[in-house]
Design the sequence.
């Protein structure tokens, strides 16, 4: 069987989501064995939780490799207002000098298909493989302001097949430092923006949206980025579902169309008894409102939303946005 190398960055607060990701991977690994690498900053992962993940991975006949990143290993990377932890995946070419390829996953995904085909993608000559993102479909000026060419299709870095061999050939820390220093006030996502800057000029291999499915997009935007057929296939058979956005499926406020699938995988883990920690009466009432409005909202195009938005007072829009984007409790 083929060996697939998968990395996730996390800390102790993300133990449950990471366990769900692993459960979903193991449940669908029919053709490959899994080597799982956990990236974490020194002091952010409790020993008992590392031991739990090791035992959980071994139970499913996988290999567990913890990758503790000392702050000194990030010394050449720049400080950002988001903190250095967001840059952990960029350490992979250095901390895994004998590995040529690895699949990086965010902790807010589930895997719903065997990953052998994705991992077997030939990325010779590319720095990575990733799915296109919506950021610049809304505003191309975002990437242009950071020196990313308009011709480059901005990608989402939550699911990336990294060509470690190729990335070791460039001065990654130095390039990122210059990029962050130049664009400090513009950067929205340090790791993602930096990778898009580095991987322009033909260094990105684009994978189908079914490998990084985002259900939050308006139909016209999704069609613009990927095309109707690719979106249809992705929705019918999503291989990796990415719960992009501030409201995650483990929140009582989630109305994600595939939220129940996350809970289905959770129930197969030792955390089957977990319940949302934000399940207050107020949030339950907000959930009713969201459950009624989200399906309706999903039917509108971006242009229609913009027209409707002009009719809503600015103060009310700010209040709604602030209410919905409140930080979620730690897991």
Sequence:
């Amino acid at each position: 069987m083929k060996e697939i190398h998968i990395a996730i960055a996390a800390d102790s607060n993300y133990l449950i989501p990471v366990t769900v990701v692993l459960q979903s991977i193991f449940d669908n690994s029919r053709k490959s064995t899994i080597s799982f690498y956990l990236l974490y900053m020194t002091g952010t992962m409790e020993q008992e939780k590392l031991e739990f993940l090791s035992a959980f991975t071994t139970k499913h006949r996988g290999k567990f490799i913890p990758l503790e990143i000392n702050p000194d290993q990030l010394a050449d990377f720049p400080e950002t207002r988001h903190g250095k932890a967001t840059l952990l995946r960029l350490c992979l070419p250095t901390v895994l000098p004998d590995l040529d390829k690895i699949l990086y996953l965010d902790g807010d995904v589930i895997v719903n298909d065997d990953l052998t085909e994705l991992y077997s993608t030939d990325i010779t000559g590319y720095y990575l493989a990733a799915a296109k993102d919506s950021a610049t479909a809304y505003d191309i000026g975002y990437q242009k302001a950071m020196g990313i060419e308009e011709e480059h299709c901005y990608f989402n870095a939550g699911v990336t097949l990294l060509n470690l061999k190729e990335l070791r050939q460039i001065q990654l820390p130095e390039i990122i430092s210059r990029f962050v220093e130049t664009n400090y006030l513009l950067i929205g996502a340090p790791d993602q923006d930096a990778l898009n800057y580095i991987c322009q000029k033909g260094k990105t291999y684009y994978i189908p949206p079914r490998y990084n499915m985002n259900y939050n997009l308006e139909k016209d935007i999704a069609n613009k980025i990927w095309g109707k057929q690719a979106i249809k296939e992705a929705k019918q058979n999503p291989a990796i579902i990415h719960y992009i956005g501030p409201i995650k499926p483990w929140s009582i406020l989630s109305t994600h169309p595939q939220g129940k699938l996350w809970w289905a995988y959770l129930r197969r883990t030792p955390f089957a008894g977990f319940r949302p920690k934000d399940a207050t009466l107020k949030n339950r009432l907000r959930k009713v409102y969201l459950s009624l409005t989200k399906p309706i909202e999903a039917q509108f195009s971006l242009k229609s939303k913009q027209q409707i938005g002009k009719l809503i007072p600015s103060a009310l829009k700010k209040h709604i946005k602030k209410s919905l984007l409140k930080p979620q409790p730690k897991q």
